[in-house]
Design goal:
The protein is mainly alpha-helical. Helix content is 74%, strand content 0%.
């Protein structure tokens, strides 16, 4: 068994992945159901769900300083050096948003689309116990659905937030917005059909579910549900499996101790980020408060995306596999 890198553990199915799948589908499904069934849908509660999603989602990046150790072992740089570089990059990105909001926003949207899209395909490979594959079409379908489509399909709702992020920006004009909605929807359908035909039925269904979420649910509520209820738990599942300290517990089908270990490791960075987020939120009115909070999220996303790229690169070389695959046993029906 490898001591470092994405581990092949020797017991049970991939419990973290299964739990994350159930939880994320439940959150997004419930969010969609509220909009469709409850009179008035999310209404004015969209900003509250956005805040909840940001708060719940922050901890999924709080272990970034440990990921190099998970995948590189003793060859990883010192944690203090990584933390210092991480913090410096966060500050630089935040200042870039202040100085050049337009270009910074565009760069952030492109990075977010790539990060979310590759995150979905990497998790699918992790869940299947296979090395991570590069799948540009599927990643682009997920990324544009989650990032570009809300801006195009809900122009009126996001316009105040976009203007607060980048003064003078009114978002997409009506014509390009309609074209973007059509293009992204077609891309999602093509990618979904392709996934279905090659046997990735769950991935195709999840793409359809997220497409429905973005088109039906108000954008702030939709992003809060996705970020905190879908993206974060799926990334945390990969981290739980990548941490060598969790190998024995996961092999025995125990999840409580790895979760407690993760909570201890993530507590201080999470509290620091949430404290700064609270200060930024409480010192301004809506939508400036949300814009400033999203600037912080953007600043945290840049180094986080780089760290996840390291994890994905390691995952392309090997895989985390359930016991029945690691031992060469046939899959149980």
């Amino acid at each position: 068994m490898r001591l470092y890198g994405p581990l092949v553990w020797a017991g049970g199915d991939q419990l973290p992945a299964r739990v994350a799948v159930v939880a994320s589908r439940a959150v997004v499904g419930a969010t969609l159901a509220v909009e469709l069934v409850v009179p008035g849908g999310w209404g004015d509660a969209g900003p509250a769900l956005l805040v909840a999603g940001l708060v719940v989602g922050i901890p999924h990046g709080a272990l970034d300083h440990l990921v190099p150790r998970f995948v590189l072992g003793p060859r990883a740089p010192r944690v203090a050096l990584l933390a210092a570089g991480y913090a410096a990059l966060v500050v630089a990105v935040f200042l870039a948003f202040r100085a050049l909001p337009g270009p910074a926003l565009l760069a952030f949207l492109l990075l977010s689309a790539a990060h979310f899209g590759t995150g979905e395909t990497a998790f699918t490979d992790f869940r299947a116990g296979r090395p991570s594959r590069i799948d540009p079409l599927t990643a682009a379908a997920f990324g544009t659905t989650l990032v570009l489509l809300p801006l195009a399909a809900h122009r009126a709702e996001v316009a105040p937030l976009v203007a607060a992020l980048s003064a003078g920006s009114g978002g997409l004009p009506p014509g390009p917005a309609r074209a973007a909605v059509t293009a992204v929807t077609v891309l999602a359908v093509v990618a979904g059909v392709r996934c279905w035909r090659r046997g990735d039925h769950a991935l195709a269904a999840e793409l359809a579910l997220l497409l429905a979420l973005v088109l039906v649910v108000p954008p702030l509520a939709a992003f809060g549900a996705y970020f905190g209820g879908w993206h974060a738990p799926r990334h945390l599942a990969r981290l739980l499996a990548a941490d060598p300290s969790n190998a024995a517990d996961l092999a025995a089908g125990r999840l409580a101790r790895p979760l407690r270990r993760l909570a201890r490791q993530a507590a201080l960075p999470s509290l620091a980020a949430l404290g700064v987020l609270a200060v930024l939120w409480l010192t301004a009115d809506w939508p400036e408060s949300a814009a400033t909070a999203l600037m912080l999220i953007a600043a945290l996303t840049v180094p986080h995306a780089l760290v996840v790229a390291v994890l994905d690169r390691a995952a392309r070389r090997t895989a985390i596999r359930p016991r029945h695959l690691a031992d060469g046993q046939p899959r149980r029906p």
